[in-house]
Amino acid sequence: MTGRKDFLSQPAPENYVAGLGRGATGFTTRSDLGPAREGPSEEQIKEALAKRAAQLGQAPPTAYGATGKKDDDDDDERFQDPENEVGLFANGTYDRDDDEADRIYQDVDERMDRRRKARREAREQKEREEYERNNPKIQQQFADLKRALGSVTDEDWANIPEVGDLTGKNRRAKQELRKRFYAVPDSVIAGARDATQFDTSISADGPDGAGTSADNADGNMTNFAHLQAAKDKVLQVRLDQAAQAPGMDSVAGTATNIDPKGYLTSLSKSELKAGEVPVGDINRARELLESVARSNPKHGPAWIALARLEEFAGKIVKARQIIAEGCARCPTSEDCWLENIRLNDNHNAKVIAANAIKALPRSTRLWTTAMNLETDTRAKKRVLRQALDHIPQSVQLWREAVNLEEDPADARLLLAKATEVIPLATELWLALARLETPENARAVLNKARKAVGGQGDSHLIWVAASRLEEALGNTAMVYKVMERGVKTLARESAMLKREEWIAQAEKCEEEGAVITCGAIIRETLGWGLDEDDDRKDIWMDDAKDSIARGKYETARAIYAYALRLFYNKKSVWRAAIDLERNHGTREALWQLLEKAVEACPHEDFWMDLAKSKWQAGQTDEARRVLKRAFDMSSSENIWLFAVQMEADNGQIDRARQLLTAALEKAGTDRVYVKFVAFERQQGNIDAALDLVTRGLELYPHNAKLHMQKGQIYESLNKLPAAREAYAAGIRACPKSVPLYLLAARLEEKAGVTVKARSILDRARLQVPKNAEILTERVRLERRAGNLQAANNLMAQALQELPTSGLLYSEKIMHLEARTHRKPRALEAIKRVENDAYLFVTIARIFWGERRLEKAMSWFEKAILLDADLGDTWAWYYKFLLQHGTDEKREEVVAKCVLAEPRHGEVWQAVAKDPKNAGKGREEILKMVVQRLE
Q1: Sheet holding 213-215: strands in order across?
Q2: Is 869 helix (H, G, I), strand (E, B) or coil?
Q3: What's CA 250's distance to the chain center, in Å?
Q4: pLDDT for 296-340, tens place per residue?
Q5: Does residue 846 sit within a domain?
Q6: Confidence check: pLDDT of 176 > 50
Q7: Which pick of 307, 353, 592, 888 has the fewest CB atoms within 10 Å?
Q8: Which residue windows does the record flag with biased composition (Acidic residues) (predicted)?
Q9: From the centroid of its chain, how far is CA 464?
Q10: Among 456, 454, 516, which Cα is nearest to 488's?
Q11: With contact defined as beta carbons under 8 Å apart, do 310 and 278 qualify?
Q12: CB 218 within 8 A of CB 191
């Protein structure tokens, strides 16, 4: 133990003054005990202050108590505040001129500040809004949820479960689980024993007798057949998902939209049963509902929920007791009484209904329910009479009373009384008008119009009046009544929206009132639209929507109204003509086409009219139509159509005369092409060669003429001349893909594969990234037997065109093994959005796997995507020849003839062959099927 004193017991150092380092000085007061002593001297104070300043890194204090200025301090007059005037201006005096100058400067500053204020405030507001939008407050984030709480009913609040200590419960459960110990099963011990063994023996027969299996290192059997089957199943599911096209918005999209109606329907079919719900959940719900009912006994939904819970649990007697108590506690709750009636049998329900009506004598639902409890019609009428005594203004009760009357005269009397009691009930007026004679119905509707005025469903009265005139055969009055009705409704501000009027027109069409439908469209279609609006586009969309809903008369009326305002618009005439062609009669189509050629004498309308007459067997009428067309226009399309019509009718000389006249009046390159094709079809090779030579002199850059010349020489087996013709065509038309293909196929036919390869390589340079050229290059190597080169070229082609369905189809069907086709198809459908060639390829894969429904769906998707591709129709028809019915085959042939396909690799080769001239599309379809590979 040391004898040194502690710090506070030690004597103070010499000349110690408390707080001296902080600038304090010593002093003595009268309260000090003992002799006073002197404080530190001035030198000691300065020394202490200097020491303290040195520790703080400051300059020692001066005689004025302020720290001295360091040498490196740069605080000179350059950095002084200009507002703090020093020196000569420190005590300067100002005169009135100086004050005036200061005032003027201040006014200028304020004016400039006001000029910039609006822009500054706008900029600050914008920045503040941007900041608040990017950094919303907590109350703003939950504002929509707080507003949604306003729609929560008391029953929903009462059904909110209490929050338990789930965290602690889970923690305790985990702790209990850790305390448990289980015996190690023998399989684990055996697995540990055999873990070091390795066996690679392969069994010849798997578990199913046909697969191949192998032992893994852990002793389990691996069945390769099962693995392959699982892989195929996964690919199948993915292709099925890709095939789903919701709403046909995307033909092969991979969207996974859920149909809300179908989804809710499926949910309604999966109702729970009492045995499927745990008893604990039912007890928990019972406790909650009982708590709500006891805490708020005047809340009817709580008693209803509790009664339904007991009914769900199978305790119907207890449910009746609970709902009876609820009715006693809530005698003014209509729902409680209705639930009580529902839960009881018929006899007790009548008693309960009587008590309910005593409590709520003006409840329409209770009176209707009491009426439905009666089995005798007379008793039902008696209940309804009492109900009408209590609630004479109920339209529903009057409707029920009228429906119970079997005699129309009695029903008429009831409706007459009902309209007196409820003059604003449009429904009752219309019912009365339907029961009256036509003359009396007019009077009833006039009374209804005066009584209702512009309130409620007053427009239905005018529609009913128009339909009445239509039923009487007064067509002119239908339009007059509808016109007057629209004016009256507009004057009384009871006019419906344009879309609602269209719905009324469609309803009239559905019920057979076609003239009223047209009158409604005529008087209301332009309501609310100005001339500046895109009225034509709006009306065209309205007509398309009506056609999609199957309301063709409404669409016809819309087109008729649009044609009155847009009389010279070709697009409107075309839409109306298409409607008549697809959903109208032949006579209506002819009438519309006659009006079209008068209003808009376009060559397409002339040809449509002539073609329609021709297809109807009226050849002379078709000729007269074409003669009228020739008088108005000497278009080459009309000339060529006339030639085709005469040639198909077997009038070869007449067709040749027309072609000769067309060369004189409209000697275009297209006329030369058609004339050459006509002579080739007739077998006049010399005349065709002479024509093609003359045409090339006039039009040396027409690729089709060069192709025709080469094909003529090729048909004569003059390969050098054909080669020269194709070469000249390529020099004149270096961007023509068909010329390159014909030249390459000619060389391949001659056995000069190297030359064909050279031509296609040159074509790739002239026309880069062309799917047809790249595909032909791959096919050339494949036909030559160079599969490795074909695969290499295909890889390069897919790098250039990764979204080409033609390339993927060639790769999948000809360069891939059968087992690899489905994965490649899945890869292709992810990269290629919509391609008919690829869809046909996928359909063929399913066809090969005997997945007939899937194959048919993919064929139909391909046709829907591109109906102009003839090869798709041919593949589909070939599929139906093996797996389709006669009706389906006839349907496909009819649709193909109607679609009039013109393109396709095999289709064009067959259709443009001179040997097949004059054959219909059905014959061409069957010939293409024979040539498909």
Answers
A1: 202-203, 213-215, 221-223
A2: strand
A3: 9
A4: 888 889 999 999 988 888 889 999 999 999 999 899 899 999 999
A5: yes
A6: yes
A7: 888
A8: 72-84
A9: 38
A10: 454
A11: no
A12: yes
Q: What is the pLDDT of residues 527-538, one digit of tens each?
A: 888 776 688 888
> Considering the entire predicted model, what is its pTM?
0.60
Q: Find tokens 């398309």 and name the residue.
A: 544
Neighbour count for residue 273 (Cβ, 10 Å): 8
Domain CATH for 888: 1.25.40
What tokens appear for 240 in the block?
Answer: 């099925």
Q: Rounded to an integer, what distance in angstroms lies between the CA atom of residue 206 and that of residue 213?
A: 6
Let me know if 279 is exposed, middle or buried by CB neighbors in 10 A (0-12, 13-18, 19+): exposed
Q: Could you read off the pLDDT of 425-473 as tens digits, one per residue?
A: 888 888 888 888 888 888 888 888 888 876 767 888 888 888 888 888 8
User: Within a 13 Å sphere around the CA of 695, how many CA atoms are in the beta-carbon half?
Assistant: 27
Residue 314 sits in a domain of what CATH number?
Answer: 1.25.40.10
Any bridge partners for residue 61, and if so which?
67
Mean pLDDT of 289-298: 87
Question: What's the token pair of residue 206?
Answer: 């798997």
The pLDDT value given to residue 218 = 45
Among the residues of 391-436, which ranges form H helices? 395-404, 408-421, 426-435
3-class state of residue 212 by DSSP: coil
Q: Terminal CA-to-CA distance of the chain, rounded, Å?
A: 115
How far is the C-alpha of 352 from the C-alpha of 357, rounded, in Å? Answer: 9
Measured distance CA(85)–CA(92) in Å, rounded? 9
Integer CA distances (angstroms), 519 to 497, 515, 556, in order:
16, 6, 12
* 825: Cβ contacts below 8 Å, ≥ 6 apart: 239, 808, 812, 838, 841, 842, 845
Total domains, the chain: 3
Q: What is the CA radius of gyration of the chain?
A: 48
Q: Considering only CA atoms, which of 734, 712, 737, 736 is closest in space to residue 722?
A: 712
Contact status, residue 343 vs residue 316, Cβ threshold 8 Å: yes
Separation CA 712–CA 718 (nearest Å): 9
Buried residues in 484-503 as b, exposed as e (16+ CB within 10 A): ebbebbeeeebbbebeebbb
Exposure letters 637-669 (e unless 16+ CB within 10 A, then b): ebbbbbbbbbbeeeeeebbbebbeebbeebbbb
Which residue shows structure tokens 């194709």? Answer: 726
CB-neighbour burial class of residue 709 (10 A; exposed 0-12, middle 13-18, buried 19+): buried
Q: Among candidates 780, 772, 815, which has minimal Cα distance to 903? A: 772
Give whichever of 33-37, 205-209, 417-421 has the largest mean pLDDT. 417-421
* Tens digit of each residue's pLDDT (9 = 90 or more) over 329-380: 899 899 999 999 999 888 888 899 899 989 888 888 999 898 888 888 888 8
The segment with the largest mean pLDDT, out of 80-94, 168-182, 889-903, is 889-903
Q: Is residue 44 in some structural domain?
A: yes
Provide the residue range defining the domain that includes 292: 274-360
Cα gap 658→634, rounded to integer Å: 12
Pick the last residue of a domain from 343, 360, 377: 360
Mark 796-815 as b/e (b = at least 16 C-beta within 10 Å).
ebbeebeebbbbbbbbbbeb
Answer whether residue 412 shows pLDDT above 70. yes
Q: Which of 360, 378, 402 is the last residue of a domain?
A: 360
Exposure on the CB side of residue 823, measured as CA atoms within 13 A: 8
Q: Is the pLDDT of residue 904 over 70?
A: yes
Q: Is residue 353 part of a domain?
A: yes
Does 246 or 677 have the greater pLDDT score? 677
21-49: buried (b, 16+ CB within 10 Å) or exposed (e) per residue?
A: eeeeebeeeeeeeeeeeeebeeeebeebb
Tokens 């269209």 sit on residue: 502
Tell me the two tokens of residue 628: 């009228």
Residue 57 lies in a domain: yes
CB 519 within 8 A of CB 478: yes
